[in-house]
Amino acid sequence: VQLQASGGGLVQAGDSVTLSCSASGLTFSSHGMGWFRQPPGKEREFVAAISADTSVIQLTDSVRDRFSISRDNIKNAVYLQMISLQPEDTAVYYCAAARGSFALAYTSYDYWGQGTLVTVSS
User: Fold this and answer.
1) For 12-29, how does the pLDDT look when each residue is reduced to its tens digit (9 = 90+)?
2) Measured distance CA(122)–CA(100) in Å, rounded
């Protein structure tokens, strides 16, 4: 299984960025997908999750009004759309594939991408 995240970079506060994650080696449409992030010097934290059939979406409170998650089960890809980025959003962002059709807990994700760094300058 391979998950390849892309789209990170250096942006200004207030900018928008869309992260992409391409998946291979798994039956993508059967797995819930998630995005996690790890700010500098901090623990990895949950950002967003979407169920295998897209019917269930969950975002952490701090990003609920600014981020959205979507997926394309034909392209085997999941996306994280981020608007109004703030310096506190600076982190390495990881996409992950869940063991089942939907998951929130870090421990329920079996497969992880390599991460893409988003740096938001003020």
Assistant:
1) 999 999 999 999 999 999
2) 39
